[in-house]
Amino acid sequence: MKLISATVRNYRIHRETTVRFDEHRSLIGGVNESGKSTLIEAIHRGLFLKARVTGDTQKSMMSLHHAGHPEVDIEFSVAGKTFRVNKRFSGQSGITQLVEVGGNVWHGEEAESELNRLLKVDDKGGGRGLTERIMQQWAHLWVWQGKSGNDPTRDAASEHHAILQRLQNGSSAAIMQSDRDSRVAAYFARQYEQVFTQNGKFRAGSEANEAEKACIEAEEKERMCKERMQRLEQATLDFESSEQTIAEADAELSQLGQQKKKIDSNIEQVKQLQSLKNQQIDTYTREEQQEKELQQANQTILDLRGELNQRTAELAPKRDKSNRLQLALAELKQRVTQASEKYQLTIQKARAIRQQHDLAQLWVARFEFQDHSDTLSTKHQKVQQQQNEIERYKEALNKLSPINENALQSMREIQEQLSGAQAALKAMAVGIEVIASEHVIRVGEEEAKSGNSFHLNAPTDIWLDNLTHLRIQPGGGGSLETTRQQVQTLQKQLNSTLDSYAIESLEQAATIIAKRNQIEQKISTLQSALKILDDGKLNEDYIHIKDKLSKVTAEINRRAEQLPEYIAPATRSEAADYFDNLRYKLQQADTEEFETKAEHDILAKQFHQAELDFQTGISDLTTNDQQITEKQVRLNLALEMYGDDAHRAKLLQQTQYAKQQTKVRLEQTCQALETLQPEQLERDQMRIERALAMQEQSRQAAIMQRAVSQAALRLDGSEDPQAAWSMAHARLQNAREQFTHVKRKAEAIKLLHQLFQQQQKQLSDRFSQPLADKISAYLQGLYGAGTKVSITMDEGKFRDIQVIRPSDTVSLSFDSLSGGTREQVAAAVRLAMAELLAADHDGKLPIVFDDAFAYSDPERVRTLQRMLDLAAERGLQVIILSCNPADYAGLGAQLTRLDECSST
C-alpha cells in the first residue's frame, strides 16, 4: 500500500490543502504552526476513523476559521489497484465513499469495512477513548510529533503476531518445543521459585535460606570472639607503648624549650635593628628629596631668566605689525560699507520689479484659467443635456415589461407545441352537429339546439328528453387522454409565462421587445456620445479649474493692494506683452543685483580676513604679555621660597653632607641585620613551635591511649577469650558444612532451570535475530560498520532493545540512550518492522516521520538520510514532515511546501 495524494478541507487551519506523494521519498516542509501535523493527522483519520464519529473527536477536527464540515480525500494504491476514499466528518450524517478506479464503489459502513480490509486493520469501534485507540492504528508506521523517542516495540504491540509470522515463514524450518520438555522446564521453574527470589537470592523460609542464616550467625559469633581476643591483646601492647611514648615526649619538650628561648632573643634583636633601619631609610629619603628639590629650583630660576629675556626681545616687531594691520582694516571697513549701501539699493529695485512681474504672471494665468473654465462649462452643459435625455429613455424603458428575446422564443416554442397538441386533439375528437330536432337534446351539461355543433375529445353523455341516454366514446383511447392532458399542461405553462411578464399575448410581447430594442439602441448611442464628451473626469476638472480661477483672482487682488499704481490688463494679449516686458526688466535687475552682491562679498571677505589677521596679532601680543608676566611672577616666587643664589648654594652643600653621613649609618645597620639572618630565624621559630606542638600532641595521645588500655583490661578480662573463640570457630565449621550441602542442591536446581531458559532463549533468538540484523543494517549506515543490535522476544512480544556501537565497549539499553540517539534507533526499528510487514502489503508500506528528529543535530540528520534512503530502496514509502526541509536536501526527496499547496 502506498499513498498517492491527499486533500484536506475545512480541517482546523486548513481550508483546502492538496499534497501529492512521491512513490519512494516525500518531504513536506513548512514553518511552525503552518499545519504539518494537522495535515498528517487528517490523512491518518481519513484512513482509520469512521466518518460518523461524534463527540469531542469530531469537534476537535472542526475549523474555527472556515465554514463547512471537515473533509478528507485520499488516493492510494493496493495490490496494483488504485482506490480513492472520501470522508466527510459531519457527525451522524457523516459520509464515507470508497471508489476502486475503474471498478466497484462502496458507501457508508460497507466502505469502512472494505477500507479496513484493504489496510488489514481491525475496527476500533466507538465510545470513550476512541481517539487514543485510533492513534494506535499503524502506530509503528506513523511517528507522531513528540513521540519519536518512545520505545517502538510498544507501538508495534498489535503487529507482533504478524512480525513473528513473517519471521517464521522466512526461517529454514519450523521451531518447536515438545510437551514433555515444557513440563520438565515448568517443574524446575517451580523448584527454582521455591528456592530463589527474582533477584537470584535464597527465598525466605527455604532450607538454603535457613542454612545460610545459621552460617552467617556462626560467622558473626566467631568474628566477635576473635575480635575480643585480639582487642585484649592489643590493649596490653597499647599500654606499654603509651608509657614509653610519654617518657620520650617529656625529654624532647625540655630540649625544644631551651632552643625556643634562644631563637626568641635573636628575633627581638632583629626587630630593634629593623626599626632603626626604617628610621635611617626615612631620613636618607628626606635628605635626598631635599637635595633634588634645591637642584631643580636652581635650574628653574635659570630657565625663567632666559625665557624672560627672549620674550622681551621678540615683542617689539609684533607691535609694529599690529599697528599696520589696524590702518588697513579701517580703510577696508569704509569700502565694505559703501558696497553694502549700493547692494541694498539694487535689492529694492529688483524687489519692486519682481512684485510687478509676479502680478503680471498671475494675470496671464487668470486669463488661461478663465478660457479653460469657459470651455469646460460649455462641455458640462452638453453632458448634462445628454444625461437628462438618457434618463428619460431609461424611464420609458422601465415602464415596459422586462421580457427579452429568450423568453419570447421560449413562449413561441410552447405555443407551437400547444398548437400541435390542439390540432392532434381536434383530429382525434368526435364531431356532433344537430341538424333538426323535435326533442330536447343535452350534450353533457349543455342543451343542444338546431344548428349547434360540438367536438368531443372525452367520453360525453347525451340525453333525448331524458328518456334516451347515449354515451359517445371518441377514438384514440389512451393517446387521446394523454394529448388532452398535454394541451392543458402547455396552455397552463403558456398562461403562467404570460402572467409573469404581465402581458396578454405573444403579439404584445413581440411589440414590447421591439420597443425595448429601439429605446436601448438610443440609450447606447447617447452613452457613446457621452463618453466622448466626458471620460469620467469632466466634473472633477471643472471644479478644479474653478478653484484655480478663484485662488488666482484672490491672489491678484491681494497683490494689487501692495501696488496701487498697477493698471490691470484688459485682454490676455495685453497681459502677456506686459509680462514679457517685466520679465526682461527683472532679468536686468537680477543681473545688477548679482554683480553688486559679488562685489560686496569680495570686499566683505577681504575685510573679514584682515579683521582675523588683526585679531590674531592682538591675541599674540596679549599672549606674549601674559607669558612674560607669568614667568616674572614664577621667578619672584622661586627667589622668595629658596633665597638668592648664595643662600641656595650654601643650603645645597649642607644637605649633601648630611645625606652622606646618613648613608654610612644605614649601611652599618644593614650589615648587623644580615649577620643575624632574620629569614632563617623566622623559619627556626616556626620549626621549633611546630615540633613542640607535635610532641605535646603525641604526649597527650599517649596519655589518652594509656587510660583507654587500662579501662579495657579492667572491664574485659573476666573470661578466657581464647577458649570462647575456639568454641565459636568449631560451631562455624559445622554451619559451613551444612550450608555447603544445601547450597549445592539449590545450585543444581538453578543450573537446570538456567539450562532450560537458555534453550528457550535460543529458540527465541532464532525468531528475533533476523529482525535484529535488519535493524543493525539500518544503523550501520548511521554509526558505522560493526554496529550491532539485540532484541529479546518474551511471551511472543519483542522488547529490551540493546545497541552496541563501534565506539562503545558495552551494550546500551534503549532507555539509557540520549534523546537524539533514541530517536535514531527507534527510527531504525520502525523501518525494519515496516520492511517485514510490507510483505503482507505487496512489499509496499508508507512510514511517516512528523518532525521526528528534534533532538538530532544537523550533521546527524544528514547522516540519517542514508538510513531513510535505504528504506525507500527496499520498497517503503518514506514521508518526512519538517520545519527545516533544507536539512533533508541530501535525501533527494520530492519537496512540497504547505504555503504553496494550501489556501486558507
Q: Briefly, what is this?
A:
The chain is an alpha+beta fold and 904 residues long. Helix content is 67%, strand content 12%.
How does this model look, in words?
This protein is of the alpha+beta class. The protein has 19 helices and 21 strands. Helix 7 packs across helix 16 (721-783) and helix 17 packs parallel to helix 18. Mean pLDDT is 81; it is low at 171-177. It has helices at residues 36-48, 55-59, 108-119, 130-135, 152-155, 160-170, 179-195, 207-399, 405-428, 478-500, 506-533, 538-562, 572-642, 645-676, 678-715, 721-783, 819-837, 858-873, 898-901, and strands spanning 2-11, 14-20, 25-29, 71-78, 81-88, 95-100, 105-107, 142-143, 430-433, 441-443, 446-448, 453-456, 460-464, 468-472, 788-794, 797-804, 812-813, 845-850, 876-882, 894-897, 902-903. The longest helix has 193 residues, at 207-399. The strands form five sheets. It has a seven-stranded antiparallel sheet. A five-stranded parallel sheet has the order 8-18-19-3-20, sandwiched between helices. It has a four-stranded antiparallel sheet with strand order 11-10-13-14, with no helix packed on it. It has a domain at 2-176 and 766-903: P-loop containing nucleotide triphosphate hydrolases (Rossmann fold), CATH 3.40.50. The two termini are 30 Å apart. One of its GO terms (molecular function) is exonuclease activity. Residues 208-349, 376-424 form a coiled coil. This is DNA repair exonuclease SbcCD ATPase subunit. Keywords: Coiled coil, Exonuclease, Hydrolase, Nuclease. It comes from Nitrosomonas communis.
